[in-house]
Amino acid sequence: MSPRPLVLLAHGSRRPGPSSVMSRTAQRIRTILPDVEVRTGYVELQPPDPATALAGLVDPVVLPFFLARGYHVLNDVPAAVQRHGSGTVTGHLGAEERLVEAVAQRLHEAAAPLGGSAGLDHIVLGAAGSRQAAALEEVEAVSHMLEGRLGRRVTPAYLSAARPTVRDAVSTARARGARRVGVATYLLAEGRFHRALHSTGADVVAAPIGDHPAVAELVAHRYRELVA
Length: 228
Prior knowledge:
Number of helices: 8
Order of helices and strands: EHEHEHEHEHEHEHEH
Oligomer: single chain
Radius of gyration: 18 Å
């Protein structure tokens, strides 16, 4: 029997680039799982939509390619699989040490001219935000794990739907004496939210983590867990 196919369903962008995070991540996953058919799709804003991504597949493994348990994870992805008629939804990416590793590395790279993350006086974890309490709890958990990894205080903050905002968190850090403030980016891809981080007043803004090797490894881990 052929291995069950794997479909990653992400949010989507109004301005997708020619080489998207999803395509790069999918290629990494194909290297890790060479016998598995890997497809990608989007719940809104760009093609292929979930129905197209799932078309023709029997009993696929469907991974919500989202960092936190928001509306799309709880509703849109399960609904797409139900409409398709077969398949199993895995856990989303979630609060995982592999993701924290990626966030920390991206921050260290961005802060290299200042001596790495050790050269920052304060760190803000910049996340998208959600009205779902479970999603905010996951961001809080990631901030605590990042604190443990860096040995530094990390303030979780948001770009929409929750408080504090990233801008307010940066301002508060300045008011408390921080000279160098860095934003550890908890986003998967370039886009409107990541561009907004650059106008928060931080000295350093890390790159998104979506195409970090640790993310592909986590996806492969989720797949293997489910099919086992």
